Amino acid sequence: MLFWLLALLILCGFLWNYKRQLKIANITDKYIFITGCDTGFGNLAARTFDKKGFHVIAACLTESGSTALKAETSERLHTVLLDVTDPENVKRAAQWVKNQVGEKGLWGLINNAGILGVLAPNDWLTVDDYREPVEVNLFGLISVTLNMLPLVKKARGRVINVSSIGGRLAFGGGGYSPSKYAVEGFNDSLRRDMKAFGVHVACIEPGLFKTNLSDPEKAAEKKLAIWKHLSPDIKQQYGESYIKKSLEQLKGTASFVNVDLSLVVECMDHALTSVFPKTRYAAGKDAKTFWIPLSHMPAVLQDFLLLKQKVELANPKAV
Q1: Residue 135, burial from CB neighbour count under 10 angstroms (0-12, 13-18, 19+)
Q2: 177 occurs within a structural domain
Q3: What pLDDT, on a 0 to 100 scale, did the predictor assign at position 202?
Q4: Is residue 248 part of a domain?
Q5: DSSP string, 54-107
Q6: Which of 106, 165, 247, 255 is a plausible cystine mate for 151, CB 3.0–4.6 Å?
């Protein structure tokens, strides 16, 4: 009995692995649109999918980013300048893409553009500190999706939203985690809405990666700038030693981030080309072994582990 049970499990594992390896055909006939292609995940994805034979339309924020990308790719790849927070810019880009893809529609939409914003305790911040990451990471993503969706529905294609482990666990104050939590909610509702149209919606949750977005030096500079403008009361509660140690801790994150950006692009690739794509992808060792498992744990355990890493305040009773 035990032998047959073991054999069944092995067979199921084999079939599951085989199913995941099945790929779609006619990649060279398909168009994909990727946001945030100046650097990081988007830039590598644009170059990778261009080499695979896709018709890549890469959205860049800057002219310099667009020029550099075109210099490294084939004539098949096109770029478009796009600020995802500008509704008129998004509408013009969608119309331009529509003219490019024609009746084929858009096979893949990869919503990758995003920013970190300020990472600091919530009581240091104003509403404006939350606004920019929410505008880019959430409303920008929704705006691009809604404008491109008719083209994706025409192709019965794929929508891939790049979220973050910050959408599963809030590891710091600021607008980044709230924006990513909201992306997760939008992703789930969109996935269910698009099911009837044959459109598959997937979410990628990268851990901590070495990109311009997560540059610890820049994050430390922003945090220090906020500190300098805080009221004397809050500075007394936290203390000078807090800001010094917290900045050192922030800069120290560079030593354990993932450096291989292809781990995220591989998730994009599977979500785009697999006959049976997954609904969620975790990218990076830290995401798979720590952040995602911890997100399923009781809140008391989450708080215990995350608060262990927090710098101690000088005088929290001075209120």
Answers
A1: middle
A2: yes
A3: 98
A4: no
A5: -EEEEEESSHHHHHHHHHTS-TT-EEEE--TT-HHHHHHHHHHHHHHHGGG--S
A6: 106
Q: Phi first, then psi: what are they for 69, rounded to 5°?
A: -65, -45
Distance of CA 84 to the CA centre of its chain: 14
Instruction: Enter the pTM of the model.
Output: 0.91
d(CA 61, CA 82): 5
State whether residue 87 is helix, strand or coil: helix
Q: Is 98 exposed, middle or buried (0-12, 13-18, 19+ CB in 10 A)?
A: middle
Structure tokens at 179: 């924006």
Successive 10-residue mean pLDDT values, the chain, 319 residues: 71 65 90 97 98 98 97 97 98 98 97 96 96 98 98 98 96 95 98 98 96 86 94 95 91 82 98 97 96 96 92 86
Query: Could you tell me which residues come within 8 angstroms of residue 14 by beta carbon, excluding any fewer than 6 positions away?
Result: none
Q: Catalytic: 281? A: no
Tell me what pLDDT residue 4 has: 74
Q: Which of 176, 238, 242, 281 is catalytic?
A: 176
**Residue 38 belongs to domain with CATH number:** 3.40.50.720
What's the total number of domains in the chain?
A: 1
Residue 268 lies in a domain: yes
What pLDDT, on the 0 to 100 scale, is given for residue 76? Answer: 96
pLDDT of amino acid 7:
65
Between CA 176 and CA 173 the distance in angstroms is 8
Q: Decide if 14 is inside a domain.
A: no
